[in-house]
Fold this sequence. Notes:
- The chain is α/β, with parallel strands linked by helices.
- Helices cover 33% and strands 22% of the residues.
- It folds into two domains: 3-78, Fe-S cluster assembly (FSCA) (GMP Synthetase, Chain A, domain 3); 92-350, P-loop containing nucleotide triphosphate hydrolases (Rossmann fold, 3-Layer(aba) Sandwich).
- The chain has eleven helices and 13 strands.
- The chain has an eight-stranded mixed sheet, sandwiched between helices. A three-stranded mixed sheet has the order 1-2-3.
- It is globular and about 70 Å long.
- The two termini are 36 Å apart.
- Adenosine-5'-diphosphate binds next to helix 4, strand 12, strand 13 and helix 10.
Amino acid sequence: MTNESIEKVLKGIVHPETGENIVDSGFVERAEAGTEGNISVTLRFAKTRDPFAEKIRRHVEEALSTAFPQSRTMVIVKEAAPKPRRREQPTTTARIRNIVAVASGKGGVGKSTVAANLAVALRDMGYNVGILDADIYGPSQPKMFGCEGYVPDAEKRDGNDYIVPAQRQGIEIMSIGFFIDPKDALMWRGAMAVNALHQLIHQTAWGELDYLLIDLPPGTGDIHLSIISEVKITGAVIVSTPQQVAVADVVRGVEMFRHPQVGVPVWGVIENMAWFTPDELPDNRYYIFGRGGAERYAAGAGIDLLAQIPIIQSIMEGSDEGRPAAGFDPRVEPYYGEAARRIVEKSAKEC
Ligand code: ADP
């Protein structure tokens, strides 16, 4: 498998509008054979929202996996080259020391809860922390920090427009949820959400942050690829419940970050809802969702198990009341404190 043989396959795919193959139409920005049978293709279409983009992306994946059955293909779709104004405006993420992606294979495993409590734990260690809530399917950071209904202001600096994040409990918060009605969330999928996130990433008026945690949507998809390609993520943390940890979604998520073209270090797994201890039996641990799954998976995948967080009522209540429990419940604090310390250790190694 060579770059030439990959290009030959791509030349077999025609863009319905140009009537020409996608290589001659100029839509293939790069197509490379990497190590270990990985193929990486970046498509850049001429239009901002090319209606055929998704169809062609799938076609490319299928054609390459048919032609090279042993290979793994990653296709990144980029928008039309950004307008010059965008490029001139300096991105506000440039000053942030560490950008940490908080991801999960599936929804409902506690990813957003972990992100919010980690933010609080890092704050309590003395760091300046921000959260970017990019979970377009269920933006929940506004609720977790009690700032639902916050209407971001725009601020002009040096002739450029910036969006002012909410400030709650010493943490800077920007959420896609400030811009959408949850009832409309479905129509925000795809290109619109990608465009909106692009603005939130590059135009939020963050302060001097030590850590920006990005609460990603569950799973893997275009939103992830777009964020990964737009911003330098220092490391990724995967949140899972014990029974979900080895399932395909988590494995795919880890592979996405580890893909050679992406190259984001996976710092580890946080096992959430690891066990339950009733108040009246403080020495007992009930492993409701199974035991040892995360440890086994982490060891097998060569990933660290960063922390195990039990099911604690105040974690759920704190999220509902707009104040993450790591900030006020001494039974909860040590678990997130440990996870935060491990993250600080990991980020120190990346410097
Ligand atoms: P996700 O972001 O993965 O969709 P959430 O963070 O919204 O998941 O969590 C799902 C639900 O589980 C929420 O109601 C949250 O309060 C609750 N929850 C998450 N982690 C815990 C925990 N360790 N103990 C108790 N409740 C939890």
